[in-house]
């Protein structure tokens, strides 16, 4: 990518140098000095007035950082305040950035990630020292894995107090510097700001990195004393950054065309291809290629399209394996997915005879999931690659697919008044499909666990950017709290389908109420960590207890100020969903579901069998169950 940046005498943010001035620095000891005191105060006041008229207010490091973040395009800051970062909190709150005070730092980080994906603008997470930072790390780890652009702004202990047991001390005495305060697996860029003089270079590094394709997670840690220090001799560089995609080499396109023209091929779509939905559709229709997607890529290619064969991996469809066995492609064009365990389970059944053409902006991704398979690697932005590829295929649509492609199975479960209670998850998903997916434009998020598998398997999205799941980390609480960021970022409704375990672990209902965020939670309430419970059954393992006390989430939500309804009968589901969509307030639907309905994962269990995982036949339910790879 070409980058053009120049310094200018007219900086992006202009700051000047001011010295701290106090008119009351001298103590007057006696009443006889009153007239002198008055004269001194009048003179000083006059001098102060002159300085005030001739110069702008003093700018602290905290104020400068807030201005810097605003100039980088940050619109939202999510976090939990504390004494060590009071100056930063105040500066953010008085800047152009909208500040949202959360109840837990992990929830703030999850929300920041989803706000980025919904708005395509970088976001900030702010924390105090000590546990503020460590609480946020899981959410930031997920953000890095998901490919979000986030800047963590934290406080740390000032240099003179380090090693002296300061409150919530944050230093090398209490936390490892490597990985938290330095670049590595967690942060793309990390630095402790010890001087205002560092800010221009930090601004430059952040601006250039945020303009690059892909994710970027940074950490700026600012000691408490430095936050209030004055900015001296700082000027912000004027950067003219040409944002451009990583284009494929001509040789890579030529080789791709040669390989794809040699026989039938499939397209495997991942989340990294979300900005190339239209181009991928055109390529599929011109070539007749079958299309499958990762769980995160769900909806990028229309799921009601006749060339769509299903979702792969966790919660995926057996139709994908049927296609790979009955009508195997010669090669598979992989676009924007790492083909990791949640997407492929590394099943050899997914490897075509001619191997993969794997396209990704990260050159280290292709070939990792299937190191033994023949792989032609292309480093490129997906949209740029497919646009180039389209130039080499006839501009005609393949109106008839040579062979009838397998389609994802769609189970219809009719309402039955004889079994109206408890709610079957299949019936709940059918109602969500009708009222929310087809009847609104809301973003739908699914939490990890059985919520993930039911939603991924049964919901069908005909358009892109409507479905979000996290597979890189799969942390409980991601969707429960991330739904706030999704609603904010898109300025509209966002729905989280979650389990009761995640809802008990970390929710931000109170935050949604405070800021009037139109988030909707649909809680699959079965009084279990049910993915674990069902998984232990299928593996024939005894003794582990995955149950929890029954919880009335509707009562909890109403106690926090949200609207809520409890559902125990299938016949009441649609009315509750319609009420939630129509509401302008945060809304929770507490659905008591049948805990014994095994979650769908027929395709996944074929993958597990292919990898040699065995279950105990006597304990295997009649229908396949979803459970993490053991």
TrEMBL record:
Coiled-coil residue windows: none
Domain Thiamine pyrophosphate enzyme TPP-binding: 448-591
GO cellular component: acetolactate synthase complex
Cofactor: thiamine diphosphate
Keyword annotations of the record: Thiamine pyrophosphate
A single GO BP: L-valine biosynthetic process
Highest taxon listed in the record's lineage: Bacteria
Domain Thiamine pyrophosphate enzyme N-terminal TPP-binding: 60-170
InterPro entries registered for this protein in UniProt: DHS-like_NAD/FAD-binding_dom, THDP-binding, Thiamin_PyroP_enz_cen_dom, Thiamin_PyroP_enz_TPP-bd_dom, TPP_enz, TPP_enzyme_TPP-bd
UniProt-recorded Gene Ontology molecular function terms: acetolactate synthase activity; flavin adenine dinucleotide binding; magnesium ion binding; thiamine pyrophosphate binding
Ranges for domain Thiamine pyrophosphate enzyme central: 265-389
Region (Disordered): 599-630
Pfam (any one): TPP_enzyme_M
Similarity section: Belongs to the TPP enzyme family.
Protein name as it appears in the record: Scytonemin biosynthesis protein ScyA
Protein's organism: Amazonocrinis nigriterrae CENA67
